[in-house]
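quick one: uridine-diphosphate-N-acetylglucosamine bound model?
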Amino acid sequence: MDQIRIRGGRPLSGEIAISGAKNAALPLMAAALLTERRLVLSNVPQLADIHTMASLLGQHGLAVEKLAEGGRVLSLGGAVTSTEAPYDIVRKMRASVLVLGPLLARTGQARVSLPGGCAIGTRPVDMHLKGLEQMGAEIQLEAGYINARVRGRLRGASILLPVPSVGATENLLMAACLADGQTAIANAAREPEIGDLAACLRAMGARIEGVGSERLVVEGVSRLGGAEHAIIPDRIETGTYACAAAITGGTVRLRGGRLGHLGALARTLAEAGVEITEEGDALLVRRLNGLHGADVMTEPYPGFPTDMQAQFMALMAVAEGAAMVTETIFENRFMHVPELNRMGARINVHGASAIVRGVRSLSGAPVMATDLRASVSLVLAALAARGETVVSRVYHLDRGYERVEEKLAGCGAEIARSHD
Ligand code: UD1
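yep, here:
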């Protein structure tokens, strides 16, 4: 298993190219199931999760071809020959459940393994299933699988999501594009990745209104065509490297980063003493003077993203004063806390909140990655720590951060990957 070794204490300086957004790419790839024509996606990030989605689509019968730049441009298309998403693939990546809506809409049936829990919480898919049932699907759960079928086409429906789930919004949006009649999705998630999915679906011929708002209205069409679509830059990768610049007291240009996609994160970083300015197609991030404690609560977009909570906590670990970090989206997303505390942080968890009392400096230690964002928070802490940190189980990082060690080393970090 790979490990990452980091010797901390060097302010980062230089430029980092932001990759395409993983969480936009995954539903966009699943959208290829909606048409027999070719969908060509560019700015595809090179990540383990993308390979997992490509193999799942391959198993459904689609041809997935790398057109350029080692897979950064992907062509997807072809006949659906299997409507089963097996446990062996779904257990590796929960986002596999995004094939459910498209498969059902295009073929009238789908058999998709239930994703089960994961390190950060139980993560049910009840809203995905309930919405599809409202659209006329018959769904049974049997032997760990979701068995779904519909006689004829799915029907338009009026769906109210109890909470704005990203995945449920995406699954239902894709299914609604090929349904008979109008579907309204109220309390829809508004993440930029959903806007990106809607833009691509529209280019394929879908009729969608209300993009960017909490009510999406879709007029179903009988078929969708192909399209070419460039994936938006990854706002979580952007935020993560902004925290890396800040925690080391450096200055970094994030090429491709979009300020408008950062939501509450940009405001919170400013409150903590981190300046972010737009410079052409890049964001320039630098720490002004000292870092100050700032309280955050995770919320659906445009609120503070749960996917930035761990990284922001690493930053607060070395800020002056205290910060309260409250997690409202997932029930078990503080697994980075004991590892950060082993590096000298002073963090106490009380239920869904953590009090972070800033310390002068952290010290390197052997630490273990537990999930994607928790692992990158340990990398950030290590960049600021005295001495050496060895992060093990970095396969979590590889699911969502492309060439993390190369990007950081390019800005002067002392970081290297080794094989255990
Ligand atoms: C997506 C992101 C993930 C991010 C999360 C929240 C992808 C591939 N993943 O995950 O990185 O952390 O949004 O921003 O885009 N819930 C239910 N029932 C459901 C669906 C969700 O109870 O049917 C709950 C979840 O357990 C969670 C909350 O709703 O507590 C939000 O989850 P959701 O927005 O669906 O997250 P994902 O789409 O899984």
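The radius of gyration is 21 Å.
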